[in-house]
Amino acid sequence: MPLRIGLAGAGFVAPHHLKAWQRLHGRATVVAVADPKIEAARARARAFGVPAVYASVEEMLERERLDALDVASPRETHAHNCRLAADRGLAILCQKPLAPTLAEAEALVAEIGNRARLMVHENWRFRPHYRRIAGWLREGRIGGINSASMQALTSGLIVDASGRAPAIERQPMFATLERLLVMEVLIHHVDTLRFLLGPLALKRADIGRRCRLVRGEDQAIMVMATAKGREVTLIGDFTERRRPPVLFDYLQLLGTEGSIVFSGEIVRIIAGTRDEAVPADLPADYDASYLGALTHFLDRLDDGGSFETSPEDNLETLRIVEQVYS
User: Fold this and answer.
1) Cys bridge to 271: 58, 258, 260, 286, which one at CB 3.0-4.6 A?
2) Residues 232, 233, 239, CA angle at the centre, nearest 5°?
3) CB 18 within 8 Å of CB 41
4) Nearest to 91 by CA among 314, 311, 318, 315
5) Residue 131 in contact with residue 104, Cβ under 8 Å?
6) How many helices (H) and strands (E) does the chain have?
Protein backbone atom coordinates (compact mmCIF):
# COMPACT_ATOMS: atom_id res chain seq x y z
CA MET A 1 0.00 0.00 0.00
CA PRO A 2 1.28 3.49 -0.81
CA LEU A 3 2.21 5.64 2.17
CA ARG A 4 -0.39 8.24 3.10
CA ILE A 5 1.18 11.71 3.07
CA GLY A 6 -0.15 14.91 4.60
CA LEU A 7 1.20 18.17 3.19
CA ALA A 8 1.62 21.13 5.55
CA GLY A 9 1.61 24.32 3.50
CA ALA A 10 0.04 25.40 0.21
CA GLY A 11 2.41 28.21 -0.73
CA PHE A 12 5.09 28.76 -3.36
CA VAL A 13 6.89 25.40 -3.10
CA ALA A 14 3.78 23.26 -2.58
CA PRO A 15 3.17 22.61 -6.32
CA HIS A 16 6.71 21.29 -6.71
CA HIS A 17 6.17 18.89 -3.80
CA LEU A 18 2.79 17.79 -5.14
CA LYS A 19 4.08 17.30 -8.67
CA ALA A 20 6.88 15.07 -7.39
CA TRP A 21 4.52 13.10 -5.14
CA GLN A 22 2.27 12.46 -8.14
CA ARG A 23 5.20 10.83 -9.93
CA LEU A 24 5.61 8.53 -6.92
CA HIS A 25 1.96 7.52 -6.82
CA GLY A 26 2.75 3.82 -6.62
CA ARG A 27 4.75 4.36 -3.42
CA ALA A 28 3.03 7.31 -1.76
CA THR A 29 0.02 9.55 -2.19
CA VAL A 30 -0.87 12.94 -0.72
CA VAL A 31 -4.26 12.49 0.93
CA ALA A 32 -4.60 15.91 2.57
CA VAL A 33 -3.19 19.43 2.51
CA ALA A 34 -3.40 21.96 5.36
CA ASP A 35 -2.87 25.71 5.30
CA PRO A 36 -4.39 28.61 7.29
CA LYS A 37 -5.07 30.21 3.91
CA ILE A 38 -7.79 27.71 3.20
CA GLU A 39 -8.52 28.95 -0.31
CA ALA A 40 -4.88 28.37 -1.26
CA ALA A 41 -5.12 24.84 0.15
CA ARG A 42 -8.31 24.21 -1.82
CA ALA A 43 -6.69 25.47 -5.01
CA ARG A 44 -3.71 23.15 -4.58
CA ALA A 45 -6.01 20.25 -3.77
CA ARG A 46 -8.10 20.84 -6.89
CA ALA A 47 -5.04 21.16 -9.11
CA PHE A 48 -3.47 17.94 -7.89
CA GLY A 49 -6.45 15.81 -6.96
CA VAL A 50 -5.89 15.84 -3.19
CA PRO A 51 -9.11 14.65 -1.53
CA ALA A 52 -9.00 16.52 1.81
CA VAL A 53 -8.27 20.11 2.84
CA TYR A 54 -7.78 21.56 6.32
CA ALA A 55 -7.19 24.99 7.81
CA SER A 56 -4.64 23.67 10.31
CA VAL A 57 -2.07 20.92 10.58
CA GLU A 58 -3.52 20.00 13.96
CA GLU A 59 -6.91 19.26 12.44
CA MET A 60 -5.38 17.32 9.58
CA LEU A 61 -3.36 15.13 11.93
CA GLU A 62 -6.39 14.59 14.15
CA ARG A 63 -8.71 13.49 11.36
CA GLU A 64 -6.45 11.77 8.84
CA ARG A 65 -4.66 8.46 9.08
CA LEU A 66 -1.19 9.43 7.90
CA ASP A 67 2.15 7.71 7.57
CA ALA A 68 4.24 10.85 7.03
CA LEU A 69 4.05 14.64 7.12
CA ASP A 70 5.64 16.74 4.38
CA VAL A 71 6.33 20.18 5.89
CA ALA A 72 6.34 22.88 3.22
CA SER A 73 4.98 25.69 5.38
CA PRO A 74 6.83 28.95 6.28
CA ARG A 75 10.07 28.48 8.19
CA GLU A 76 8.57 29.94 11.40
CA THR A 77 6.14 27.00 11.54
CA HIS A 78 8.59 24.19 10.78
CA ALA A 79 9.49 23.27 14.35
CA HIS A 80 5.87 23.34 15.53
CA ASN A 81 4.67 21.15 12.69
CA CYS A 82 7.55 18.71 13.12
CA ARG A 83 6.74 18.38 16.82
CA LEU A 84 3.11 17.67 16.05
CA ALA A 85 4.10 14.89 13.66
CA ALA A 86 6.74 13.45 16.00
CA ASP A 87 4.19 13.28 18.82
CA ARG A 88 2.20 10.94 16.58
CA GLY A 89 5.22 8.90 15.50
CA LEU A 90 4.98 9.98 11.87
CA ALA A 91 7.91 10.14 9.50
CA ILE A 92 8.74 13.77 8.68
CA LEU A 93 10.13 15.49 5.61
CA CYS A 94 10.77 19.15 6.47
CA GLN A 95 11.70 21.93 4.09
CA LYS A 96 14.90 23.80 4.87
CA PRO A 97 15.70 25.41 7.23
CA LEU A 98 14.51 23.31 10.13
CA ALA A 99 13.91 26.53 12.07
CA PRO A 100 14.62 30.27 11.71
CA THR A 101 17.74 30.06 13.90
CA LEU A 102 20.39 27.47 14.70
CA ALA A 103 19.41 27.39 18.39
CA GLU A 104 15.78 26.61 17.55
CA ALA A 105 16.84 23.91 15.11
CA GLU A 106 19.19 22.30 17.63
CA ALA A 107 16.43 22.27 20.23
CA LEU A 108 14.03 20.65 17.76
CA VAL A 109 16.50 17.92 16.78
CA ALA A 110 17.28 17.15 20.42
CA GLU A 111 13.60 16.99 21.33
CA ILE A 112 12.60 14.69 18.47
CA GLY A 113 15.61 12.43 18.95
CA ASN A 114 14.72 8.88 17.89
CA ARG A 115 10.96 9.34 18.30
CA ALA A 116 10.44 9.90 14.57
CA ARG A 117 12.31 9.62 11.29
CA LEU A 118 13.16 13.19 10.22
CA MET A 119 14.73 14.27 6.93
CA VAL A 120 15.43 17.82 5.81
CA HIS A 121 14.08 18.59 2.35
CA GLU A 122 17.27 20.17 1.00
CA ASN A 123 16.72 19.52 -2.69
CA TRP A 124 19.47 21.63 -4.33
CA ARG A 125 22.07 18.89 -3.98
CA PHE A 126 19.66 16.48 -5.68
CA ARG A 127 19.82 18.42 -8.95
CA PRO A 128 21.19 15.99 -11.55
CA HIS A 129 24.05 18.27 -12.63
CA TYR A 130 25.34 18.42 -9.05
CA ARG A 131 24.94 14.65 -8.66
CA ARG A 132 27.02 14.27 -11.84
CA ILE A 133 29.73 16.56 -10.48
CA ALA A 134 29.75 14.65 -7.19
CA GLY A 135 30.30 11.44 -9.14
CA TRP A 136 33.27 12.93 -10.98
CA LEU A 137 34.79 14.06 -7.69
CA ARG A 138 34.30 10.61 -6.11
CA GLU A 139 36.07 9.09 -9.11
CA GLY A 140 39.00 11.45 -8.58
CA ARG A 141 38.64 12.82 -12.09
CA ILE A 142 40.27 16.18 -11.24
CA GLY A 143 42.41 15.02 -8.34
CA GLY A 144 42.39 16.89 -5.05
CA ILE A 145 40.63 20.24 -4.77
CA ASN A 146 42.88 23.30 -4.79
CA SER A 147 40.10 25.89 -4.68
CA ALA A 148 36.39 26.30 -5.30
CA SER A 149 34.17 29.24 -6.09
CA MET A 150 30.42 29.52 -6.48
CA GLN A 151 28.21 32.41 -7.50
CA ALA A 152 24.45 32.96 -7.28
CA LEU A 153 23.77 36.20 -9.15
CA THR A 154 20.53 37.69 -10.44
CA SER A 155 18.85 41.03 -11.08
CA GLY A 156 15.71 39.77 -9.36
CA LEU A 157 15.70 42.49 -6.68
CA ILE A 158 16.36 45.44 -8.96
CA VAL A 159 13.29 47.67 -8.76
CA ASP A 160 11.73 48.60 -12.11
CA ALA A 161 9.98 51.82 -13.12
CA SER A 162 6.69 50.58 -11.66
CA GLY A 163 8.30 50.03 -8.25
CA ARG A 164 8.33 46.26 -8.51
CA ALA A 165 11.06 43.62 -8.37
CA PRO A 166 10.80 40.26 -10.20
CA ALA A 167 11.98 38.17 -7.25
CA ILE A 168 9.27 39.62 -5.00
CA GLU A 169 6.62 39.18 -7.65
CA ARG A 170 7.63 35.54 -7.81
CA GLN A 171 8.01 35.05 -4.04
CA PRO A 172 6.25 37.84 -2.09
CA MET A 173 7.58 36.60 1.24
CA PHE A 174 11.05 37.81 0.17
CA ALA A 175 9.94 41.31 1.15
CA THR A 176 9.20 40.30 4.75
CA LEU A 177 12.20 38.17 5.71
CA GLU A 178 14.69 39.63 8.19
CA ARG A 179 17.15 36.94 7.13
CA LEU A 180 16.83 36.81 3.37
CA LEU A 181 19.61 35.91 0.95
CA VAL A 182 21.76 33.66 3.13
CA MET A 183 19.02 31.87 5.10
CA GLU A 184 16.56 31.56 2.23
CA VAL A 185 18.77 31.08 -0.86
CA LEU A 186 22.48 30.66 -0.18
CA ILE A 187 21.72 28.00 2.43
CA HIS A 188 21.16 25.76 -0.61
CA HIS A 189 24.57 26.61 -2.01
CA VAL A 190 26.35 26.08 1.31
CA ASP A 191 24.72 22.66 1.56
CA THR A 192 25.67 21.81 -2.03
CA LEU A 193 29.28 22.84 -1.45
CA ARG A 194 29.37 20.69 1.68
CA PHE A 195 27.89 17.81 -0.32
CA LEU A 196 30.57 18.16 -2.99
CA LEU A 197 33.60 19.08 -0.87
CA GLY A 198 32.99 17.69 2.60
CA PRO A 199 33.14 19.65 5.87
CA LEU A 200 33.54 23.41 5.56
CA ALA A 201 34.48 26.10 8.06
CA LEU A 202 33.49 29.75 7.66
CA LYS A 203 36.49 32.09 7.76
CA ARG A 204 34.82 35.42 7.07
CA ALA A 205 31.62 36.85 5.63
CA ASP A 206 30.01 40.13 4.71
CA ILE A 207 26.36 40.91 3.96
CA GLY A 208 24.57 44.00 2.68
CA ARG A 209 21.28 45.33 1.34
CA ARG A 210 20.56 47.47 -1.71
CA CYS A 211 16.92 46.82 -2.55
CA ARG A 212 14.54 49.13 -0.65
CA LEU A 213 11.68 46.63 -0.96
CA VAL A 214 13.23 44.02 1.35
CA ARG A 215 14.11 43.94 5.03
CA GLY A 216 16.91 41.42 4.88
CA GLU A 217 20.22 41.19 3.04
CA ASP A 218 20.35 40.82 -0.73
CA GLN A 219 24.14 40.61 -1.05
CA ALA A 220 26.61 38.26 0.62
CA ILE A 221 30.21 37.14 0.34
CA MET A 222 31.32 34.06 2.25
CA VAL A 223 34.83 32.65 2.42
CA MET A 224 35.12 29.12 3.75
CA ALA A 225 37.80 26.44 3.96
CA THR A 226 37.76 22.69 3.39
CA ALA A 227 39.10 20.22 5.94
CA LYS A 228 42.44 20.47 4.10
CA GLY A 229 42.43 24.25 4.27
CA ARG A 230 41.53 24.90 0.63
CA GLU A 231 39.63 28.14 0.03
CA VAL A 232 35.97 28.05 -0.97
CA THR A 233 34.25 31.30 -1.96
CA LEU A 234 30.50 31.82 -2.25
CA ILE A 235 29.09 35.09 -3.62
CA GLY A 236 25.42 35.94 -3.81
CA ASP A 237 23.85 39.11 -5.18
CA PHE A 238 20.21 39.65 -6.16
CA THR A 239 20.92 43.17 -7.47
CA GLU A 240 23.39 42.30 -10.23
CA ARG A 241 22.26 44.32 -13.25
CA ARG A 242 24.17 42.27 -15.79
CA ARG A 243 22.28 39.10 -14.88
CA PRO A 244 18.75 37.94 -15.75
CA PRO A 245 16.00 38.10 -13.09
CA VAL A 246 16.05 34.30 -12.81
CA LEU A 247 18.78 32.80 -10.65
CA PHE A 248 21.55 30.79 -12.31
CA ASP A 249 24.40 29.10 -10.44
CA TYR A 250 28.05 29.30 -11.42
CA LEU A 251 30.52 26.81 -9.97
CA GLN A 252 34.24 26.39 -10.57
CA LEU A 253 36.30 23.61 -9.00
CA LEU A 254 40.04 23.70 -9.59
CA GLY A 255 41.82 20.43 -8.87
CA THR A 256 45.34 19.10 -8.93
CA GLU A 257 44.62 17.23 -12.17
CA GLY A 258 41.88 19.21 -13.84
CA SER A 259 38.86 21.44 -13.38
CA ILE A 260 35.07 21.37 -13.40
CA VAL A 261 32.97 24.37 -14.40
CA PHE A 262 29.19 24.65 -14.28
CA SER A 263 28.02 27.76 -16.09
CA GLY A 264 24.66 28.52 -17.65
CA GLU A 265 23.41 25.19 -18.95
CA ILE A 266 26.74 23.40 -19.41
CA VAL A 267 28.75 21.25 -17.02
CA ARG A 268 32.32 20.99 -18.27
CA ILE A 269 35.20 18.86 -17.04
CA ILE A 270 38.77 19.26 -18.24
CA ALA A 271 41.16 16.58 -17.03
CA GLY A 272 44.39 15.70 -18.81
CA THR A 273 43.66 15.51 -22.53
CA ARG A 274 39.93 15.08 -21.93
CA ASP A 275 37.55 18.00 -22.38
CA GLU A 276 33.91 17.00 -21.90
CA ALA A 277 30.88 19.29 -21.89
CA VAL A 278 27.52 17.93 -20.74
CA PRO A 279 24.28 19.90 -21.24
CA ALA A 280 22.11 20.61 -18.19
CA ASP A 281 18.37 21.01 -18.68
CA LEU A 282 17.76 23.43 -15.81
CA PRO A 283 13.93 23.31 -15.70
CA ALA A 284 14.00 19.52 -15.87
CA ASP A 285 16.77 19.37 -13.26
CA TYR A 286 14.71 21.61 -10.96
CA ASP A 287 11.78 19.18 -11.10
CA ALA A 288 14.17 16.25 -10.77
CA SER A 289 15.61 17.70 -7.56
CA TYR A 290 12.24 17.48 -5.83
CA LEU A 291 11.65 13.99 -7.16
CA GLY A 292 15.13 12.97 -6.06
CA ALA A 293 14.66 14.27 -2.54
CA LEU A 294 11.27 12.59 -2.12
CA THR A 295 12.53 9.33 -3.61
CA HIS A 296 15.47 9.35 -1.19
CA PHE A 297 13.04 9.92 1.69
CA LEU A 298 10.95 6.91 0.68
CA ASP A 299 13.99 4.72 -0.01
CA ARG A 300 15.41 5.34 3.45
CA LEU A 301 12.05 4.73 5.09
CA ASP A 302 11.95 1.41 3.25
CA ASP A 303 15.48 0.24 4.10
CA GLY A 304 15.95 2.00 7.44
CA GLY A 305 19.13 3.69 6.26
CA SER A 306 20.38 7.15 7.16
CA PHE A 307 19.06 10.17 5.33
CA GLU A 308 21.66 12.00 3.27
CA THR A 309 20.17 15.27 4.47
CA SER A 310 19.66 14.16 8.06
CA PRO A 311 18.97 16.71 10.80
CA GLU A 312 22.52 16.30 12.05
CA ASP A 313 23.94 16.97 8.60
CA ASN A 314 21.68 19.98 8.08
CA LEU A 315 22.72 21.47 11.40
CA GLU A 316 26.26 21.71 9.99
CA THR A 317 24.92 23.87 7.16
CA LEU A 318 22.89 25.94 9.61
CA ARG A 319 25.95 26.54 11.79
CA ILE A 320 27.72 28.17 8.86
CA VAL A 321 24.62 30.22 8.01
CA GLU A 322 24.22 31.34 11.62
CA GLN A 323 27.84 32.47 11.78
CA VAL A 324 27.24 34.77 8.82
CA TYR A 325 24.65 36.67 10.87
CA SER A 326 26.66 36.76 14.09
Assistant:
1) 258
2) 160
3) no
4) 311
5) no
6) 10, 14
